[in-house]
Write a structure and sequence with these properties.
single chain; 251 residues; alpha/beta; Rossmann fold; seven-stranded mixed β-sheet; 7 strands; globular; binds S-adenosylmethionine
């Protein structure tokens, strides 16, 4: 799927929320804990998708805002969080004034921006001088059970698996924050277990964005590759990982 195309994200918004929305919770928790976020902290989520991080932050008492270029994602986030300031737009042009937030976060989204550094500069601009900027995304393929399944699907299609982007490797996010003029105050790797209740959930989660015909054709490949992650009761647990980095402006 073309991750930079908002219409593609709109088309999968409901499926994204169902299969993957709450999934990065361990990464959100690490970032908010390390930043010292507390009730009243003003948080912006850049590339907020269906609003799952916003819901998590709101439950911790934070004041929440989000932005996403996919109209259906924004609709879902607004419906779930009527009190949040959720806007349609992209990371490269944040429609908030300088220093408006205590923390700006982007999870699994910043690499879709046309220019990652420009997007990061916008996150820095809308954050207070003492505030935090945090970025998180998938760790390199070797850290993720999902990778074995994606590789099997790619090979069945006669394709080579996509190489990992720079930000997924150890040190990649720290380098990005450094290039953006930030001082890294914390960085790490968190494990994210992904559960699928049955074969259908597994196949639809992994093949999100594919049409029904393609899902039916690729399902046997997905199921065969996932056999080692299947439990006796027919569920699946894939252990994957996200990397995150948290920065502030140098004092
Ligand atoms: C993989 S989803 C992640 C959504 C959410 N952050 C989450 O963790 O569930 C990627 C999101 O990035 C958004 N996106 C794509 N290009 C973007 C851009 N230039 N600026 C901000 N968000 C973007 C997509 O619309 C989509 O909602």
């Amino acid at each position: 799927m073309d991750g930079a195309d908002p219409q593609r994200w709109s088309a999968v918004a409901e499926g994204w929320a169902r299969y993957w929305g709450a999934y990065p919770e361990p990464a959100w928790r690490a970032i908010l804990d390390l930043s010292g976020a507390r009730p009243g902290t003003r948080l912006l989520d850049v590339g907020c998708g269906a609003g799952d991080l916003l819901a998590y932050a709101a439950a911790r008492g934070l004041t929440t805002a989000g932005i996403d270029p996919a109209p259906a994602m924004v609709e879902l986030a607004r419906a779930r969080l009527p009190a949040a300031d959720v806007r349609l737009g992209d990371a490269e042009g944040l429609p908030w004034p300088d220093g408006h937030f205590d923390i700006a976060v982007s999870v699994n989204a910043l690499h879709f921006a046309e220019d990652t550094l420009d997007a990061l500069a916008e996150m820095v601009r809308v954050t207070t001088l003492a505030g935090h900027v945090a970025v998180a995304n998938w760790a390199e393929a070797a850290q993720n059970d999902l990778n074995a399944i994606e590789e099997a699907v790619a090979r069945a299609d006669g394709e080579e698996p996509q190489p990992d982007g720079e930000l997924r490797h150890p040190g990649g996010l720290e380098r990005l924050l450094g290039e953006g003029g930030l001082q890294v105050v914390a960085a790490g790797l968190v494990e994210l277990p992904w559960h699928a209740a049955d074969d259908d959930t597994l196949v639809r989660g992994v093949l999100l964005g594919e049409d029904e015909e393609t899902v039916a054709a690729k399902a046997p490949v997905v199921l065969a590759a996932a056999r080692r992650y299947r439990t006796e009761d027919g569920r699946y647990c894939l252990v994957n990982a996200f990397r995150y980095a948290l920065g502030t402006r140098p004092s």
